[in-house]
């Protein structure tokens, strides 16, 4: 028995070494950790249990019959984060550059299947050169097997991708289907075709970092949701994100202890200017309202005219959607519509209540916006809010104009509670634009058009630039003192916690993608 056990230990040690000391040193020289080191950093200490360490490839072409790939270039298993079970796979760049082959994919899919059966999140640490060319179409089939599970398990268990090296070609589509993508600044890239292929086909010259680095994918394309400077910071961010999420779609998000308070905040009336044209940072409002000012923003550098992210009220996780007056006056465009719609749908999948802070001038006008399909993209927001059955509350801070008023979770598309500050303005459009249309004839025929226009604008503001017309029609449930915003949200979430709402039976809806 001792001999057999010694053999087991020797085999396991060989697998744990991956590509060997030389390749591990090369990985460290690039400022990167190994797959196993990353798993240890991600999980609670001593909780990782490995799956299928002895799986081997069965390829024979191109010298593969003589090639060893310890662990098949990927480490899979389960462990705990903050005491809760998660499943994880980490590609090992020291073994064939982390390239994906048939059995490499099998290890990943077995891990994903076990995560889905047991209702726990799955986290992928990606660091791979792409498909294992020596295995031909078998490697492509492996990608397909992973993509299929990403789609089937979407909305069942949280799926998180962490890009910690290159991720190119077909390999990018698995992270793209998952719920959230993290990237390490300077060390990770995502692209379909690399710089050399682009130069060959189009003549364009660009570096891998400028083509698909973390900064590009976060701020320009919106592909990734979170970035940070080091691998340690990124993995800590993953742990933080999971603290807001349930294990699966059948559970409620985890509550944490929060010290009781009266929900009254004097500072709120100082943050938001009464003048509707003056800008402010909506994050200042959010941080005053949520527990401990703790707000984890998602895609913070993409579509900056909208802010989305996770926080807590009275210890309960919530999803926040807000217009950002600091950028584009908080108006909605193509990118912000996509950003908001996808975040809404994630929260609805996993029972996270939605709180919307509204201060919106409307949908951004422009030829480019129209030609790129603002109609289709804006409709995604309407669809996502209407479809969602989680508790939904809206706080109108100032402007709520036109179709954007409806798109930002109005009563008409399913909001459970809508409150407005006294500074709220709910109207078809701003007073200046409305006066020019409604009183066009009177203004043009006036002896003093400028004076008449000013008088009509003032008249319109007096009648319509307030929350009380909408409140009289039942579109607003109450007009509240800004200082009691936190308490109103806390009370609203308490009564909505037992909300039950169903939709007509159907296979699935057809969101305007």
TrEMBL record:
Domain annotation CoA carboxyltransferase N-terminal: ranges: 1-257
The membrane-spanning stretches of this chain are none
Task: State the species of origin.
Answer: Tumebacillus flagellatus
Report the GO molecular function annotations: propionyl-CoA carboxylase activity; transferase activity
Stored InterPro entries: AccD/PCCB, AcCoA_carboxyl_beta, ClpP/crotonase-like_dom_sf, COA_CT_C, COA_CT_N
Q: Which UniProt keywords apply?
A: Transferase
Keyword Transferase among UniProt keywords: yes
Pfam families assigned to the protein according to its UniProt record, in alphabetical order: Carboxyl_trans
**Positions of the CoA carboxyltransferase C-terminal domain:** 263-495
- Source organism's superkingdom? Bacteria
Which taxonomic lineage does the organism of this UniProt entry have?
Bacteria, Bacillati, Bacillota, Bacilli, Bacillales
Asked if the Swiss-Prot or TrEMBL record annotates the protein with the keyword Transferase, the reply is: yes
Q: What is this protein called?
A: Methylmalonyl-CoA carboxyltransferase
Q: Name one GO cellular component term.
A: acetyl-CoA carboxylase complex
